[in-house]
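Listing S7. Sequence submitted for prediction.
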Amino acid sequence: MATMHLRIGDLVWGKLGRYPPWPGKVVSPPKDLKKPRGKKCHFVKFFGTEDHAWIKVEQLKPYHAHKEEMIKINKGKRFQQAVDAVEDFLKKAKGKEQHSDGKGDSKGKKTPNKPLKILDEDDEDLSALKDPSEKDLADSDPEPSTMERLGAGPGSGFKWESSPAKDDPHFHHFLLSQSEKPASSMEPISKRLKIIEEDTGSTSIQAADSTAINGSITPTDKRIGFLGLGLMGSGIVSNLLKMGHVVTVWNRTAEKCDLFIQEGARLGRTPAEVASMCDITFSCVSDPKAARDLVMGPSGVLQGIRPGKCYVEMSTVDPETITELSQVITSRGGRFLEAPVAGSQQLSNDGMLVILAAGDRTVYEDCSSCFQAMGKTSFFLGEAGNAARMMLILNMVQGSFMATIAEGLTLAQATGQSQQTFLDILSQGQMASTFVDQKCQNILQGNFKPDYYLKHIQKDLRLAISMGDTANHPTPMAAAANEVYKRAKALDQSDNDISAVYRAYIH
């Protein structure tokens, strides 16, 4: 096979691990980043994303020679955006070249273009090839649109050499997400954590960046189980599959599993079977009773738990339920983590949830690639029960706020004020947010399609009030909001969005 010689600035198709080939350009690496030893590779910047990577020579193909074939094979929206970014780059480059050709020096002589040195596979430091007088070629790239999933779209028909990223000892030196702290993104996920010590002595851990956004996730080789395919669970499972995880699913209504089976998931017949088949089993159901039944009911998770098996409870429940589930799982030699999520159906679909975790720290670390696939940030809050407490407080605030917004909109209408003008003014002030704008617009349009069920936020308010009683702490605002949501439920709004609390004020 003839050796492919590349030079800085060449356009290529690069393939990394399980992800499909993606368009990129050979660029100079950062001065302090050496090429992995023993690897014949080049440093590539991908279009349509902000990723850079060392890519093996055998995983690179010339861009133009394979463009048509790749466009036929890959139909994903993000892939098309990446190809469009390449074409924009080529147009800009051509325009600059024509502009340069039309210019000479003061004597009418053209300034010759300096040839770029061919890069042999054994070159150790590509940055040494740059002419110090020239601007870094990477800086001339077009500003690409951020890609949410590098793995979007079907796989390529190329016979690339098989090299799963998880088996490559250099993988953690590959992808460099250009976040505010790019140096930290070169480290393994266990190192890319920001630790905040609180006065209480508990520890909060937040991922320093969201690699789910740019697709640079190495899926765990552990077998993942997921129980519950509701508004939140469906988006979570979809993103786990997109990022290459091996997932077995179960849902009380079996038909909901069909779509995910088509996407590559495996089917579990019972919660017990899923737990016995998988290394880590997640669950995301509606309330404390459903969470208990899933574990301790007939053919429940507990029957499939063996020493070393992990169970992650993602449902928003009370701390007492978490304590009970933790005790029964660990009594069978299992490992337990709670990880409720803050967000909505849309954020779940986008892989932008916020995960609050507590319990077994080693399970939290084992779930790192899963949490990256489903969320933008994860926090570790210490002992089991802490995440439930924090989630109830967050949802208490959100539910009370939504009830207040609805009250303001109806009061505006009752006093002859324009509701749209109220929203316009609100959107220009300190309380402006995507949440406020989206919920208010939906109210004005009469659109109450559930993004987060009203019945669930009322359940969370009830649990938060109970938690306040246990701590002998007053929750008068939450109590008032809870009464409004109870009225909305009485008006048959339970299965509508939380913004349907608005209807409690107009009946």
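Caption to Listing S7: primary sequence and predicted structure tokens for the chain studied. The longest strand covers residues 353-359. The mean pLDDT is 80.
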